[in-house]
Design goal:
Length: 417
């Protein structure tokens, strides 16, 4: 840490602009470093490069992380993401060549980094309302090459990665809360109001491992999800496992799996609002046949939702199915960001599906063996989008095992383990 009067002056300046005390920022930084360590196959060694991708409003947390990483003899590299004004220029005022331009050096940086920490602190949520979803899809396609470098290194265990939230007024306004209350709810969700947040996350990680082992032992063939407005069947496919806390997200309270995207049939209803690219989508009903979305309606944001479904060939298929046990999550109000809302516990827990790309962590073999060809063979969905849609109704989830025996695995917001 910075010494003496220099530290006192600089930290006092920082604390005037943050919702967190100095101790809370240090605790949060410790949690993030621990989380990213969990996502790596090997411990850090002195001199490893750690990227900090941050939004401007998350600067206070970035500074705390930078200090911690320096103390740990690592090499932090801060990278600030574009501001809302910059994003508006990119998506509404760029030529195609400008839109798809990738700055030189990123592939080399990603190839050498040992970890990355994403701090999401949106200054605005609605600045891209006028942007064409298909234009944004083209920009995502252009990012495929450097992202492929990241994914290869993640699969090999050489690169750790975690993503987190820093509370902002834009998020609080979208959630219908004042900023102080939003920050209070956020700290509670991440256990930052406890004497030892890392101890709590270690407890959750241990419980998730027990649940993952139990679900794997059932040898599940398919799942049936039933609630007041859901009747959905998902085939899991071969070489699948449920995954819990891996360190890739903070908070991380969900248990998720990548189903065979060709084996999803029935109706899914998302009663929780979703904010994406500034668009509020609410009351979404999706009908699936042979894995493809055949009909979609929404009480709000239907036109935007339908356009997103044509972002690419995989956008109309399911890449993830998730369940959250209400006993392990402290998220109990709408927080206007998927990273928090996908962990909703509340009275009935939640389940959600993700339209778009599947998560490679759900493959039960060596990660490096999951080539694009094998992904296609096993039914792991491929897409440049990943959009979680959440249902918080009371529900039952029944597993059909490969021996033909039905097993109730989830009811009233709790796993039946």
């Amino acid at each position: 840490m910075l010494p003496g009067p220099v530290a006192s002056k600089l930290l006092s300046m920082t604390e005037k602009t943050t919702l967190f005390t100095r101790q809370e920022l240090e605790d949060y930084a410790e949690v993030l470093l621990w989380a990213v360590e969990q996502s790596r196959a090997k411990p850090f060694k002195n001199g490893d490069i750690v990227l900090i991708n941050f939004d401007h409003d998350g600067l206070a947390l970035c500074e705390s992380l930078y200090s911690l990483l320096t103390d740990k003899h690592l090499r932090p590299v801060p990278l600030m993401r574009p501001t809302p004004i910059m994003e508006v220029e990119k998506y509404l005022n760029s030529s195609f060549a400008q839109l798809t331009f990738q700055p030189p050096g990123f592939e080399e940086l990603y190839a050498q980094a040992s970890a990355g920490i994403n701090i999401l602190a949106p200054e605005a949520l609605d600045h891209l309302l006028a942007a064409d979803p298909l234009v944004m899809a083209e920009a995502r396609k252009a990012e495929a090459v450097p992202k492929a470098v990241l994914e290869r290194r993640k699969k090999s265990g050489a690169l750790g990665w975690t993503t987190c939230i820093y509370p902002t007024k834009a998020l609080a306004d979208a959630a219908g809360l004042d900023l102080e209350e939003y920050a209070r709810q956020f700290k509670r969700a991440c256990w930052l109001n406890m004497p030892s947040p890392i101890k709590e996350w270690k407890r959750i990680r241990k419980r998730h491992q027990e649940l993952s082992d139990w679900l794997y032992s059932l040898n599940i063939k398919s799942l049936r999800v039933e609630s007041e407005n859901i009747d959905l069947r998902l085939v899991l496919g071969e070489h699948r496992r449920f995954v819990g806390f891996t360190g890739s997200n903070v908070p991380g309270c969900e248990m998720y799996v990548a189903p065979d995207c060709r084996g999803v049939d029935g109706v899914f209803f998302a009663n929780q609002p979703s904010v994406r690219s500034g668009h509020l989508v609410h009351g979404t009903t999706l009908e699936f046949h042979d894995g493809i979305t055949t009909r979609v309606t929404a009480l709000m944001g239907e036109t935007f939702l339908q356009r997103e479904l044509y972002a690419d060939a995989g956008a109309r298929r399911v890449g993830e199915f998730s369940l959250t046990d209400k006993r392990l999550s402290r998220v109990d109000t709408f927080m206007a960001h998927t990273l928090l809302d996908e962990n909703f516990g509340g009275e009935h827990g939640n389940c959600h599906i993700a339209l778009g790309g599947a998560t490679a962590e759900c493959f039960d073999g060596p990660p490096e063996a999951l080539t694009p060809e094998l992904e296609a063979t096993l039914g792991f969905n491929s897409s440049n989008i990943h959009w979680d849609l959440v249902n918080t109704e009371s529900k039952r989830v029944t597993a059909a095992t490969r021996t033909g025996e039905p097993v109730l695995i989830y009811e009233n917001g709790e796993f039946r383990y």
